[in-house]
Design brief:
By secondary structure, the protein is mainly alpha-helical. The chain contains seven helices and no strands.
């Protein structure tokens, strides 16, 4: 007998003795609502067993589902979770929970970035070399040369990712 069935049996026995529902909930460490449902089932003659098919959770989170999801993510990680859930025929919440909790992955919002052409890469390289040679000869003086549109020291922080 499982722990849940043992609790239900104990509630059933305490109801036979005539103890109040709130006191039974304290004794068994259970919600009063659950005690009330057990008493209703007892009065209807249904017994202590749960209805078949009830109490099942995470029925979609099978090892086969998780391995299929991981394979699809590895195949193309750029597809959104909503689209992935439509492909698999489950809700997007199921995919989110599976990705975050079961697979231990983290999703990020894609950020548009400036396109770096070969000419801009060459300009950056020359500027950085000039800056390094300046710092070699003038170590006590620090000057930062930057072009606000192209030359970035820090990466942009997207608050939607955290």
């Amino acid at each position: 007998m499982s722990e849940q069935e043992q609790k239900r049996q104990r509630v059933y026995d305490l109801l036979d003795v005539g103890i109040s529902q709130s006191r039974i909930a304290e004794i068994v460490n259970m919600e009063v609502r659950s005690v009330h449902h057990i008493q209703q089932a007892k009065n209807d003659g249904k017994g202590i067993k749960r209805a078949p098919g009830s109490g099942g959770h995470n029925l979609k989170h099978t090892p086969a589902f998780l391995s299929d999801l991981k394979a699809k993510i590895n195949e193309d990680p750029t597809i959104s979770m909503v689209r992935r859930s439509r492909e698999l025929g489950v809700s997007d919440g199921t995919v989110r929970i599976a990705v975050h909790n079961d697979l231990g992955l983290k999703s990020f919002v894609r950020v548009t970035r400036r396109l770096l052409t070969m000419s801009t890469k060459e300009k950056r390289l020359k500027r950085c070399q000039k800056l390094l040679t300046f710092l070699k000869h003038h170590g006590s003086t620090v000057k930062i040369f930057s072009d606000k549109k192209i030359f970035m020291v820090d990466q942009v922080h997207n608050h939607q990712n955290f």
